[in-house]
Amino acid sequence: MMKLVKILFFTLLSIASINLFAQSKSYTINGQISAKGVSKLYFTEGNFFGQDNGKAKEVEVKAGKFSISGNFKEPIPVFLSLSETLQPGTDDVIQFILDEGTINVKVQDKLKSAKVTGSAANDGAQKLKSGQIKFETEFARLNEAAQAEAQSGIPVDSLQRKYGPLFANVQNEMLDYQQNFVRANKNAFISMLVITDLVRTTQNYIEADSLFNSLDPKITSGASAKQIGNFIKSNKKTSIGAMAPDFSLADTTGKKVALSSLRGKYVLLDFWASWCKPCRDENPNIVQAYQDFNGKGFTVLGVSLDREKKNWLQAINADELTWNHVSDLKFWSSEAAVLYGVGSIPANFLLDPKGKIIGRNLRGPALQDKLKEIFR
Known about the structure:
about 375 residues
């Protein structure tokens, strides 16, 4: 069953090994809470990069007032809660973005509905969130309808044909909204994070680099911004819209085959290995695509990250992979894998007849859908 595309306010692209060495800034959070009987709150620092949250700090509430101060390096998501154990989404937790200066938090009855002012970063995030509500609502409606039809016995492939284009339309509308938001809010910290979300979906690092460079220098001068910028730049050479870097490796007979020798056809550059179970599970989908579209101008170049030629050849025969195959049998040090920045497999790149990359990591129905779009 298809999964609902999730629009998560603070769950964006995870970038490993973010090192923050930015200059410290100070903040003060002044709060008022009208709810009776509240003598303490818990303050927890989070992050935008998939790492564990910090340890909750107890905050004393006196006569309905509380204050928190400290230092930070860059805007981060933080939580105020009634419980030391966070339960996001409940009435007892509020999440906002910490920024420098004085932030005011006013709680009338429930923490979830508290009013937060004074954080420019949080204001930008709330603006983005309010604009995305309509897409969240439509995704939820489509998902509910699809689930209902699935329970009535309609086959999954029929649901994919019916709802796939509908989900895609909403997804594209949301992407347009996010791109326009970044262009209109160049001094918003959230815009930098939206770009990472955009590039995860579109795989267009050229466009992402342009958007990133359009941001206010104050936003892109931080340590994590530099990491994000470097991440985008390192992927530009294999971005959608870029010309595929050429290479030449030996085929199964030892003859050198250059990627550029396949110009004139749509080429799926497929990185895989005999020892990679997800790759082997994906192979039937590629076989089907090859059978359906090879006669129309589509081919595949398989690049194996194997170390043993025997295992490589056995897998080709066992999975009935009848297209061109190359490898230098160097495992993750494969010349082509390094050139394309491949850090996990399966991975693939779809090239047009001129050698331009027009798709990345198209697996399962996504590959079939793209080829049907090309050859319709």
